Structures are given as C-alpha cells and as structure tokens.
Amino acid sequence: MHRRSICPVLFLFLGLTAGSGLRALDMPQAQATAIRQGVQATLDAWRQHAAAGEWDALMRLYADEPGFWWVERGTVVSRSVDAIRQKLTSLPAGTRIENTFQETEINPVAADVAEVVTSFQTRLVDPQGGGYSFGGAMSMTFVKRQDGWKILNGHASSPARSGS
User: Fold this and answer.
1) Spatial separation of the C-alpha atoms in residues 17 and 127, rounded to whole Å
2) Of 30, 35, 10, which is closest to residue 20 (Cα–Cα)?
3) What single string gives the DSSP state of each residue in 105-132?
4) How many angstroms from the chain centroid is the CA of residue 81?
5) Domain annotation for the chain: domains and CATH numbers
6) What is the pLDDT along the chain (164 residues), one digit of tens a residue?
7) How many H helices and E strands in the chain?
8) Nearest to residue 2, comparing CAs of 137, 99, 100, 155?
C-alpha cells in the first residue's frame, strides 16, 4: 500500500498533503521504530487471539473508550467494544477467525498514535469445518495507553462483487 492510501481526513487533520507521508512530526527514528514494533506486536496478538477464538483476550486489544468505532462496507457497525464482544460471543462455540495481512504499513502519527493500512484476508471457521472467507483493505488507528497499544477505530472493506 502507498502512503497516499491513508485516509484524506487524517491528512487534513495533520495539515499534510497526499504523498507527503506522515513524517510531518520530526520524530526520531528510534521512536518511530519503537512505535512500529509496539503496534505490530498488538496486530500479532490480535491475529493470534482471533485464530484461537479467545474473545476476552481479543477485546483487551481494543480501546474501550467513547471515541471507539468500527466501519465495514461504508457503515458504522460498532460504536463500542461491547458491541464487538456481543457479535463474537454470539458465534457458535469453537469458532475461529483467521486473519492474514499483506503490505502492512504502520505509520507513526505522534508518540501515542499510529495509523495502520493493510490488505487483509479473513477466514471464519466454524467448529464443524465450514465457514467463509473475505478480504480487502483495512485501516486502523492505534493509540498508546498505559497497558499497551490499542485499536481505537478501524475500517475494513472488500471489493464489490461483480453484478453488485
């Protein structure tokens, strides 16, 4: 993914122009590297907990705050971590969600904020071996809190099916 793919609103908020990247903050390289490593560790834990069906552990990776939201296919589908928890715990026992990411970019915005842009593939596997797959593009805003990096909001979209 290219830096131009990052949300235009974020660029306006930061006073940047498309293509300029997120280097407007004169951040030392060591700090940017530490941010990327911390966010990557949270992404890795997110994938691991979802693949194991560990919903409580997965929920601890989200920022359970009033500003939380998640968008899919152009619609806000969750305005709270509890809404996501309810969806996941309503799945049949033993369900797993396997995620893979490609071309992931972790862009530090400030000492306690990072934007992630990635291509993704998700496979929902039910305990009887059925399920389905989908993929597309995802962006997430991560915030640093006392207990680590958390997902504050995100957006996932999949290409429209032909004929849609």
Assistant:
1) 47
2) 10
3) EEEEEETTEEEEEEEEEEEEE-TTS-EE
4) 13
5) 3-157 (3.10.450.50)
6) 333 334 434 433 443 433 434 444 578 999 999 999 999 999 999 999 999 999 999 999 999 999 999 999 889 999 999 999 999 999 999 999 999 999 999 999 999 999 999 999 999 998 887 889 999 999 999 999 999 999 999 999 998 776 54
7) 4, 6
8) 137
Q: Rounded to 10 degrees, what is the CA torsion of 152, 83, 91, 93?
A: 80
- DSSP state at residue 62: B
Residue of 113, 128, 127 lying closest to 24 (CA atoms) = 113
Alpha-carbon distances of 112 from 21, 35, 57, rounded to whole Å: 17, 8, 22
Name the helix (H) or strand (E) containing 75.
strand 75-78
Task: Please check whether residue 38 is in contact with residue 147, taking contact to mean a CB–CB distance below 8 angstroms.
Answer: no
Cα(146)–Cα(33) distance, integer angstroms: 19
The per-residue pLDDT for 11 is: 39
- CB atoms under 10 Å from CB of 2, counted, come to 11
Q: Which pLDDT score is estimated for 129?
A: 77
- Token pair belonging to 38: 């911390």
